[in-house]
Every structure is written in structure tokens, then in C-alpha cells.
UniProtKB/TrEMBL annotation:
Keywords: Coiled coil, Cytoplasm, DNA-binding. InterPro entries: H-NS-like_N (IPR054180), H-NS_C_dom (IPR027444), H-NS_C_dom_sf (IPR037150). Residues 57-88 are annotated as: Disordered. SUPFAM superfamilies: H-NS histone-like proteins. Residues 65-109 form the DNA-binding protein H-NS-like C-terminal domain. This is H-NS family nucleoid-associated regulatory protein. It comes from the Bacteria. It is found in: Cytoplasm, Nucleoid. Residues 64-77 have a biased composition (Basic and acidic residues). The keyword Coiled coil applies. The keyword Transmembrane helix does not apply. Residues 1-28 form a coiled coil.
Amino acid sequence: MSEIQNRIEQLAAEMASLQKQLVKEQAEKRQGAIDQVKALMHEHGLTVADLGGRAKVAKPRATSGDKRSAVAPKFRDPATGQTWAGRGQKPRWLAAAIASGKKLEDFAI
């Protein structure tokens, strides 16, 4: 492999690592905000209805005639952001990356 190819792979790995870190930190920040809002609501005796919103209501289960819901993606291309849920035929970007020597685990979210 050429030096340029090695550098490209190194940068792609760094990008994937940073992307995972970003998602983790965004989730932590979001959870902190949720906890803060819940504490304030409890402190002041507020409900979701007081805020003008609606509480989450459990959705009825799908019957055999209903369309299936979307599946969360399990793999992401760090270069383009394209995703794949791991069902059906592998997308071209993933098949090409695997053919070039990468592992499926390298793209796990």
C-alpha cells in the first residue's frame, strides 16, 4: 500500500473515532438537559400538559397488514455519512470498502 493510502485510512479511522465521540457527547449533553428540565418540573409541580405539549402515548402494535417501521442504522460510512441497517443487500459503498480490505466492524455505529 502506498503512503498516501495509509494516511487516508488513518484519517478515516480518526474521523470515525471523532464521530463516535461526538455522538456520545451529544447524548450526554441531551440527557443532562432532560434531567435538568425534569428537576425543574418536579420542583415547580409542572406536567407536560402545563408546558403545552403532549405526553408520549404508546403506539398500538402493528398488525400483519401494516407496513413495517424503519430499522435504526448499524453501519455508517465516515467519509459520506451514508448508513445501512444491516438488512438486505450490502450497499455499494460498503461492499467496495470491504473488497478493499476493510472490515465490517470498522463501520459499526
